[in-house]
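#random but structural
TW: two for the price of one
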Amino acid sequence: MPLWRSWHRPLVLFSAAMAAVTVVSAVGLLVDDRVMVGAPIWAKPFKFAVSFIAYGLSLAWMLSALDHGRRAGADARPHPAGTKRPTGRGAAWWAGTVVAAASLVEMLIITGQVIRGKRSHFNYQTPFDEALFDAMAVSVVVLWLGTVVIAVLLLRARLADRPSAWAMRCGIVIALTGAAIGFLMTQPAPGQRRGESPVVGAHSVGVADGGPSMPLTGWSTTGGDLRIPHFFGMHALQLLPLLVMALMALAPRFARLADARTQLRLVVIGSGAYAALFALLTWQALRGQPLLRPDGATLTTAALITLAAATGAWAALRSPRRTPTTTSTTTAPPTVTTPQHKNEHKNEHEAANKQENANEAANEAPITNTNETTDKNQKAEATA
């Protein structure tokens, strides 16, 4: 994992600012007894700040995993002498910066409305409140589009660690789908009309906002609540990479988990199960069904998802691991030349030359002797 110093700086700074907002909101929960739509007025900025810390740091880490050239906009190709190398920021850096800026605008409006004692979401009570909500809606769209750019870059990037790469890719796609649930909340609920109602939009389905709810989360206990799939989907950005970290942590104790292909299979299966569960939560909420009071159809679907995920994980763990290839004794020697190999080759070459010279001398000797004998015989005949 890259060091945090290489993470996307604006997103890291935004997350640090959200940590400060978390502290301020926690103090507000303790000292401010005001209530808004059935919940403590400082609960919304507290929950949003905590969520944004996780969201911002996750994106900052993912951007650091991209290739440096893509992340910083550097051109790695050689340039002719005298030409300037491009130094502009890349699309990934700008996308992360846009996400940080849009998220900051949203948090400023939410916190500002809390200070004013007004609701931030779906508020059309006054022209000013309507303008603030419209500005926040625009910031959410910009945030979503910036995350889309990051998702495309992650899908196209070639990352060496395939289990982590696919955890990030699947996580950000599911997170984008979860964030898109927020657009459903802005639709008029039954009895609401744009331009007439002071409130247009709702979190709950089948019941009015502000009714009985679960502690801490504030999710409805009497009807469906779109915040449940919204929350579950967006945090795939953290939970799926955590699955990879858990597999790596268990690898020293379980040899099967040390295999990269097994890890990849488990990540894909986990991502599929997560996406199926997200779809189930969305379906349950749209039917106006509370999370803790599922009907038979919901329970049956949940059981099928669990069975499919368990079967897939069992198959992934049972599949044979890739064994490293071994080199036989008949394999050719390595082509890497070392000083020792050079000396051996030199000695062999010199010995071969000596043997060749000796063979040539042996072949030429009889011919020389025969020539000399012939000359002596010719001289003897001439004398006689």
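TW: number two ↓
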Amino acid sequence: MQKEIDRLINSYRNNTLNSEEAGMLAGWLEESDEHRAHFRECLAGREQPASAKAEREWARFAARNKILFAVPEGVNTRRRLFRRYVAAAAALAVGICAVWFWQRTPGLPDTGSGVEVSAVRPLEYRTARGEKLDIVLPDGSKVCMNSEATLTVDLKFGKATREIEFDGEAFFTIAPDKSCPFIIHSANNNYTVLGTSFNLQSYARENFAVVTLHTGCLQAQIKKDVIVLDPSEELQIDATANTITKRAVRIDDSIGWIEGRLIFSGHPLKDVANKLSRYYQVRINIHEEIANLQYTGMVDRETLPEALRMISETSPVRLSITNIDGEYFLSRAKRK
């Protein structure tokens, strides 16, 4: 157990806690003064006992996470309410921890002056394969990140500009600020929003991006083309085929992944294969002959063999599915 706690504390120091881990760490800290003292010592360094620096760091953590500790007295009531707080505050804790790291200066000595020094490197969020992460940016904008995504916040974010770099998939809810547009740079494309919610799928290695607007207004700049989306509209950008497609869609289909469903509505099979790869955490390859054929259907917690069989039976062509050492290859099935 102690080894796991030390791992969580180390992740906190490295700004790599996910929402579940943040809840676990918060729960452990709430249990006793001894746990909180150990946390202080770890922040100060294993070879140094609790120092003035550690005390200040602990005070920042406690102040920013006070919702986790503000529970009524009484063991039974306290425990019951605390479980509720952890579930609601886990994602908030991750964002708070990240903001704390963003405000600190990595690698610089503490001057003891009590004055915060501005960050010297951008704030970066990452999700591993199979992981999701909810974060709150310094301006109050909310981002729910899907698997294998990276979001980098510019150093000047929230001052004269609001700009981020993004690679992956996420659902964004942008805090309104007409004087300071929110700009996303992703896979050589730019997306400008004011107060807007939308789903963006843009993995640079896949050369295929989809942005689906839920509310507000969004402007996409793809090379020299500038395209404005209205609610319930979707933009598909295929860098390989050099095509841009704008169409009306059911917006809920774009965020099925948040609840564990994959919903395809006229998406190319290469996009289907990529999404299945992230969903099932395996590598799935699609033959280029059928990569751009459009597929419509849904995967809802089926096993991978069940999902592949269903897709084969409902795709425009029947698929041949080959499994080689856990890696799947999809191609057009030969006619009998």
